[in-house]
Specification:
Elements: H1 2-17, E1 31-33, E2 36-38, E3 57-59, E4 67-68, E5 81-83, E6 91-92, E7 105-107, H2 117-124, E8 132-134, H3 142-148, E9 157-159, E10 167-168, E11 181-183, E12 191-192, E13 205-207, E14 215-219, E15 226-228, E16 236-239, E17 250-252, E18 272-274, E19 294-300, E20 303-309, E21 325-327, E22 349-351, E23 359-362, H4 365-370, E24 373-375, E25 383-386, E26 399-401, H5 414-417, E27 423-425, E28 455-457, E29 478-480, E30 504-506, E31 529-531, E32 551-553, H6 564-570, E33 576-578, E34 584-585, H7 590-596, E35 602-603, E36 610-613, E37 616-619, H8 625-663, H9 665-679
Parallel strand pairs: 2-3, 3-5, 4-6, 5-7, 7-8, 8-9, 9-11, 10-12, 11-13, 13-15, 14-16, 15-17, 17-18, 18-21, 21-22, 22-24, 23-25, 24-26, 26-27, 27-28, 28-29, 29-30, 30-31, 31-32, 32-33, 33-35, 34-36
Antiparallel strand pairs: 1-2, 19-20, 36-37
Bound molecules: 2-acetamido-2-deoxy-beta-D-glucopyranose (8 copies).
């Protein structure tokens, strides 16, 4: 009995929510799943009234609901999340949310709520449990924004991105005591008055990216964890000069016009500091200390406050002991002050690429033991000095990028410290490599000590002919030697120590040419990606057919044909191949058909592959029929030639024979006759 009662009860409960009676997937327009109804892009002009009343999540995006009418959601009493993006919505009638007291998330992005914002504001004010609101892309200015959010004291997350807000003062963001996330990116904000965010005591994340803010002074939002002011016009960033403990963990000041290193809060928890794409520099080397002060004039209403700041005092920056990620790339740094890294005892990722650094001294042993990635590429470095006395110096370094500098060497014995380094980029530096045990000094780099290296980039270093033992003791998987036109003039010998481990090998423009050198690739059994372009190879290295190559680049060589059987064998593993800029013979294209017809191989430059037909270059992809015919004739020619040569000789012989026969017919006949007679018995 109890069981029956229970099941009836459950049945009634199902009927009540509407999910038991109607199998979910059967609504005529909307897709139903669990307690979610998805009615996106169905040209609806009002909220469907025949969805299950138990719907908790309702998507009505990309419809044509211009007005959300009174009581249109009254049927959906347990609705928690409603999305009405991209509807051209102009008005939410004040009674629209009647009965939906549990709505906690409302997305109204990309509509036209500026048209009748005061009526809409009244509607929003009836949502007591709203925690998340998206008003982005509604052409709202600051007054409309203030009206719309005036009664939303329960909000925790608010997006006002992509609107027309120009300035903020303390009247605009009132009565939002619980707000934690505020997104104001992509507006036109050029002025933020002091106290504008004072009411937001729980604010943790503030995004002001893509606005027109010219400076940030007296920054004092101590509770903020993330501040994003990237892509503005900021020239100054000055935190309030006090000893308050800031919670700030992430500060994004990238893509601005900062001239000075920002004045950060003294006590902070900064982990990530992004300063790339500014105009940062230090000026102490230019100006004398005494001249390094500036006077800032703060105008706050009728109060004028003059503060003197020692902006160029380089070493008194704040406590950055939690900083892990510092990006100062794309600035104008031409030196870093002495002891700049002092106290950065957690820094793991340091990015200084695209600056004007000529020398770099890192003395701080703290920093050198925590660094994992160091990127110094695209500078003018001639000299890199590191204090490697400490045993743990560079012990955690994994990636070192020094590409495009003027380095001739590296700090002596650097590789005895970098036991975890996997990637080293020395490309585009005038370095020299020397084999182990060679007396080189610090003017040449001995890679053979760096046993942990897996990726080594040496392109464009103008290397001499490589010594045969240059890579001894390493197990490099990815090697780029391209644009060193002398490096392999003596053949592949220098690569024999890494032949077993190489997977990706770039030998573009390295002076290889099969006629002169030994081109045996059969030891490179793990190779999957090989670049042999720009090497004037006249014959295809047949040993490649024994590998399982996936990518092969043969551009800009002197190949006349490729061996068809080798290409067929290679085609089993090959995914991608580059073939253009070779003088292939138009009449020997059997290999092309083999490759082109393969389902697995893609000829990435198929449209540029040309062949030579009596010194005219023709695209192989649409070879004219006449050329094909001519090629057939050319091959047929040989038989013809033989015929032409042999036929006259035969004819001449025949004619000669006939003449001889005719001239000497009488005599021959007589001879035959006489013989016949003599032997015939009568
Ligand atoms: C909508 O409801 C509000 C109050 O709930 C009422 O003042 C208003 O007149 C209604 N509008 C329409 C068009 O019914
Ligand atoms: C705004 O909405 C109110 C109430 O629905 C209406 O009376 C008024 O005409 C609307 N104004 C505009 C400009 O649409
Ligand atoms: C800051 O905002 C911009 C724009 O939305 C975004 O691209 C960037 O990743 C953000 N920065 C951080 C640190 O999240
Ligand atoms: C810096 O000060 C020294 C004297 O202390 C002076 O000779 C020099 O000219 C000053 N340099 C600049 C750039 O003002
Ligand atoms: C500044 O203006 C306020 C009123 O706005 C006034 O009460 C105050 O006396 C003014 N102070 C000065 C220093 O002029
Ligand atoms: C001027 O600024 C300083 C430092 O920011 C502050 O201590 C002082 O109270 C300010 N004075 C006025 C009048 O606002
Ligand atoms: C910096 O802050 C850390 C804690 O965040 C503290 O342990 C350290 O002593 C501080 N260093 C200085 C120089 O104030
Ligand atoms: C093209 O073919 C002709 C013979 O048909 C040959 O003389 C010429 O050298 C070839 N051109 C090139 C670039 O190989």
């Amino acid at each position: 009995m109890a069981l029956i009662a229970l099941s009836i009860f459950v049945w009634i409960a199902f009927l009540d929510t509407g999910w038991g009676s109607k199998p979910a997937a059967y609504h005529s327009l909307c897709r139903l799943e669990e307690r979610t109804a998805d009615c996106k892009g169905k040209r609806l002009s009002s909220v469907s009234q025949d969805l299950p009343p138990g719907t908790m999540e309702l998507f009505l995006d990309a419809n044509v609901i211009q007005t959300l009418k009174n009581a249109s959601l009254v049927r959906y009493q347990v609705l928690q999340s409603l999305s009405l993006c991209e509807n051209g919505l102009e008005l939410i009638e004040p009674g629209a949310f009647l009965g939906t007291r549990s709505l906690s998330s409302l997305s109204l992005a990309n509509n036209a709520l500026s048209v009748n914002y005061s009526a809409t504001a009244a509607a929003l004010g009836t949502l007591p449990a709203l925690r998340k609101l998206d008003l982005s892309g509604n052409l709202l200015n600051e007054a409309m924004m203030a009206t719309l959010i005036q009664d939303l004291s329960s909000l925790e997350s608010l997006s006002l991105a992509w609107n027309s807000i120009m300035r903020l003062d303390d009247s605009h963001l009132q009565n939002l005591p619980r707000l934690q996330h505020l997104d104001l990116q992509h507006n036109y904000i050029f002025e933020i008055e002091t106290g504008a965010f004072d009411g937001l005591r729980w604010l943790q994340q503030l995004n002001l990216a893509y606005n027109y803010i010219p400076c940030m002074v007296e920054f004092d939002l101590t509770q903020l964890r993330m501040l994003n002011v990237s892509n503005n016009q900021i020239e100054w960033f000055l935190a309030a000069e006090n000893d308050a403990a800031f919670e700030l963990e992430t500060l994004d000041l990238s893509y601005n016009q900062l001239l000075f290193f920002p004045l950060l809060p003294k006590q902070n928890k900064l982990r990530t500091l992004l300063l790339m794409h500014n105009q940062l520099n230090f000026y102490n080397n230019i100006f004398n200390d005494s001249e390094g002060t500036v006077q800032l004039l703060f105008l706050d209403g009728n109060i004028t406050n003059i503060t003197t700041l020692d902006l160029w005092a380089e070493n008194h920056h704040s406590n950055l002991s939690s900083l892990q990620f510092l990006d100062m790339s794309w600035n104008q740094l031409w030196y870093l002050p002495e002891r700049f890294f002092e106290g950065m005892s957690s820094l793991a990722h340091l990015n200084l690429n695209h600056n004007c650094l000529e020398t770099l001294q890192i003395q701080e042993s703290d920093l050198l033991s925590t660094l994992v990635d160091l990127d110094l590429s695209y500078n003018q470095l001639q000299d890199l000095q590191m204090n490697l006395d400490h045993r743990s110096s560079l012990a955690n370094l994994r990636t070192l990028s020094l590409s495009t500098n003027r380095l001739r060497g590296l700090p002596a014995k650097i590789f005895t410290h970098t036991t975890k380094i996997t990637t080293l980029d020395l490309s585009k530096n005038p370095i020299k490599l020397c084999a182990s045990n060679a007396a080189g000094g610090s003017s040449c780099i001995d890679i053979s000590n760096a046993g942990s290296i897996r990726n080594l980039f040496l392109s464009g270093c103008d290397l001499e002919i490589l010594d045969t033992h240059i890579f001894q003791g390493t197990s490099i998987a990815h090697l780029d030697l391209s644009d060193n036109p002398r490096s392999l003039l003596d053949g592949l010998g220098p690569l024999k120590d890494v032949a077993q481990s190489l997977q990706v090998l770039c030998l573009r423009n390295t002076g290889l040419s099969a006629a002169r050198t030994n081109m045996d690739f059969s030891a490179f059994q793990k190779l999957v990606n090989l670049d042999l372009s720009e090497n004037s190879l006249a014959t295809f290295p047949e040993s490649l057919a024994g590998l399982e190559l996936q990518i092969l680049d043969l551009r800009r060589n002197r190949l006349h044909a490729l061996p068809q059987h080798a290409m067929q064998k290679l085609g089993k593993s090959l995914h991608e191949i580059y073939l253009s800029q070779n003088p292939y013979d138009c009449c020997q294209l059997g290999w092309w058909d083999a490759l082109h017809d393969s389902d697995t191989v893609r000829i990435l430059d198929w449209n540029q592959v040309t062949c030579n037909f009596s010194s005219k270059f023709i695209r192989v992809a649409n070879l004219p029929e006449s050329v094909i015919q001519n090629c057939k004739w050319l091959t047929a020619d040989m038989t013809l030639l033989h015929l032409v040569l042999v036929l006259p000789t035969c004819l001449a012989l025949l004619v000669a024979f006939v003449i001889i026969f005719l001239t000497f017919r009488q005599r021959i006949l007589q001879m035959v006759k006489s013989r016949y007679r003599r032997s015939s018995p009568y």
